[in-house]
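Lab notebook, bench 4. Continuing the backlog of folding jobs that were queued last week. Each job is logged with the same field layout so the records can be merged later without manual cleanup. Today's entry covers MDMPI N domain containing protein, a 407-residue chain. Filled in by technician R.K.

JOB TYPE: sequence-to-structure
TARGET: MDMPI N domain containing protein
LENGTH: 407
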Amino acid sequence: MAPGTPPEPAHPPEPAGERDMTGGRDPYGPPPPRPPAEPVGPPPSHSVLKSLLGAWALAACSPEETTHVEDHLTECAPCADEALKLRDAVGLLQADRNLDLPPLLRSRVLENCLDRRAARIPVPVWATPYDAETARLDALLRDFGDAEWHAPLQLKWFEKEEQAARRATVAGVIGHLMTVDGLVASALGLDDPLGDPSALSPTDRTEAFWRAAHPPPTRTIREPWRDQSHTLIRTVSFAGRGVAELSVSYGEFALPLRDAMIDRAFECWIHGVDIAEAVDYPYPAPSGPHLHVMIDLAAQLIPSALAARRRAGLASPARQLVVPGSPGRSLHLEVEGAGGGNWYIALDSPAAVGTAERAVAQVALDGVEFCQLVAGHISPEEAAAGQDGDREAIRDVLFAAASLSRL
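JOB STATUS: finished
OUTPUT FIELD FOLLOWS
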């Protein structure tokens, strides 16, 4: 071979278009063996593997990281438990699932926002229970179908010495709430849903609405009820401080606007429970602070209710003549649980002051149980959990509390 002459190739080049793509092997023979996998390096530390669990749950690890993590999960029970929880959490992120948000989420978010930056026109403190309870009930109603709106239920309350009941539907109950809320709307100069601003009792207004509703209320009642509740909240928020003492007539009695809004929040919650039970759905109690103001209002109204029962001959007579503003006999009402506290109910006159020193009896009740008594959902005999002292005074106060209920 002469110097500078290129060596001949071991195999002559194949003509273009005729190259053997099998690498010289028999195309019909067995496939070549797979190359060995690249060796995985030493496993990272426990802290590094733990930090990768979130990415592993989201399937965002590299193949090598996935191998290390899954090997680690077979040996470390705490990490395996956390990985399982993370995988379950990832499942909740699927867009095709209908998430049932906590009913109080809106209130908590608003409260957090207002703590960081006050609203220009904040909702008055005494109106926030109504705002929260109407929002909770609306959240329950939002996904109801036609069948749920026509679900039957019983409205219960207490009359004189026994419970009374009235059959209704879910839509009929929302119409009832809207109609009685119209008492507050009329006091604020807003439109009355009945079209008649005359001061009728809540029962008369409800019966008038149901008689005039032909055909019976359907799911279309939700929108006007919710619009009315939004309008009430906006109106009292812009009205200023003096509006809290505006008188709201209930026909046979009147309440200051601040108390009327708490009363409407209480009834919205109680009927929310009625509706939820009719469709077999859970419905928790209001938040502790809101439940407390509802209980406080009821405790303030019991002496007047007791005096009315005495005038009707349904309660024992007063034992002492009390000068207005002076202390008289009292009953210690101890309400336990969220929203609870201690109240001293004047026994002989609504104008008397209840004090611990003059307490002749004590009753202990759970907060929700007390509210069910005030709503007429349970009888005084069922509500008497813990009692001590004057039995006659205890009976009178429990029956007076039940008599606060109405349709």
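OBSERVATION: Residues 288-311 form the longest helix (24 residues).
SIGNED: R.K.
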